[in-house]
Amino acid sequence: MEELEHTCPHPRTTLTEPAIFARETSCDCRAPHEKLSITQARRGTPVDRPVRVYADGIFDLFHSGHARALMQAKNLFPNTYLIVGVCSDELTHKYKGFTVMTEIERYEALRHCRYVDEILRDAPWTLTPEFLEKHKIDFVAHDDIPYSSAGSEDVYKHIKEAGMFVPTQRTEGISTSDLITRIVRDYDVYARRNLQRGYTAKELNVSYINEKKYRLQNQVDRMKEKVRTVEEKSKHFVYRVEEKSHDLIQKWEEKSREFIGNFLELFGPDGTWKQVFQERSGRMLSYALSPRESPCNSPPRELSPLRSPSPPSPPARWHNARPSPPTSPKGASASISSMSEGDEDEK
């Protein structure tokens, strides 16, 4: 920070501190105050001899138009010291009209503008040669539009004739009068807002009937806001339900496709179940057509020579007994042959 102050030839304190108030004595210029021409001022002056530019005004409801005018005044010359004169409430109410801000508020607003080097309180309405000499003013900066006031068509006419006037450009679209017009036009809105913020009807100069009307309108607006909030929440809820239902339907479709695919893979024309069924059917049919034979190592059953064959069964018992069904074609032929032999014995 110290190196920066040493390298900067014109250290400015207005960026970190408010502008100073002018004192009753004359300026603190160390060099003798000599008359400067605009050409000399634009060419540049020594460090200890800045060009002293004066800009005055009411500066009520300080806005960007004021700040731009002061910026132009500050940058008129390479080495400029800007003095801003602010008229008091008494002079302003007398020659122009009532102000929104008090003179103290207007002084403080100007002190915190970065382009201002010095504030002159209770500035005169008309600039006299004595005033210019007292404050060692080189040039006066203002817009070039004739300013008619105090019985004069242009209060800066004699300044222009003396070659001390330097014009600045106005910022279109914004002025103190425009801001006041907006407030008057939207008076009901601002009155309702301030009532809602805790101001009384007396402070706002609002009648009893208008106060009740404004409060009723505020209640209606709050109800509308609640309804709007509920609508927004319901829309959000419906959107979430639709999103969830869409996800569920999508998952259900995926699961259903998977289930159908598995079902067709199992029970389809070429499915696994058909193959299993055909294999089991083939095994059962082959088992039914070709049953297992007796083991080949079992000994054959022979009749003993000592024993005589058993006598045949009585005919009555033969007719009553049911023959066991043959298990195979061979068994069926054997039973038929045995029946024929029995018939022969009976005969």
What structural keywords apply?
Rossmann fold, lipid metabolism, Pcy1-like, 2 domains, 347 residues, EC 2.7.7.15, phospholipid metabolism, disordered C terminus, six-stranded parallel beta sheet, 6 strands, 51% helix, single chain, 14 helices, lipid biosynthesis, disordered N terminus, alpha/beta
Total strand count, please? Answer: 6
Based on CA atoms alone, the radius of gyration comes out at 59 Å
N-C termini distance: 149 Å
Let me know the average pLDDT.
79
Strand arrangement, largest sheet?
A: 1-4-3-2-5-6
Q: Into which percent range does the helicity of residues fall?
A: 40-55%
Which class best fits the helix and strand makeup?
Answer: alpha/beta
- What's the CATH architecture of the largest domain? 3-Layer(aba) Sandwich
Could you describe the largest sheet, including whether it forms a barrel?
6 strands, parallel
CATH superfamily of the largest domain: HUPs
The figure for the number of domains is 2
CATH top-level class of the largest domain: Alpha Beta
Low-confidence stretches: 1-11, 303-308, 316-321, 325-330, 339-347
By CATH, the topology of the largest domain is: Rossmann fold
Shape: elongated
Number of helices: 14
Strand-residue proportion = 5-15%
Pattern of helices and strands:
HEHEHEHHEHEHEHHHHHHH
GO molecular function: choline-phosphate cytidylyltransferase activity; phosphatidylcholine binding
Region (Disordered): 289-347
Catalytic activity: phosphocholine + CTP + H(+) = CDP-choline + diphosphate
Family: Belongs to the cytidylyltransferase family.
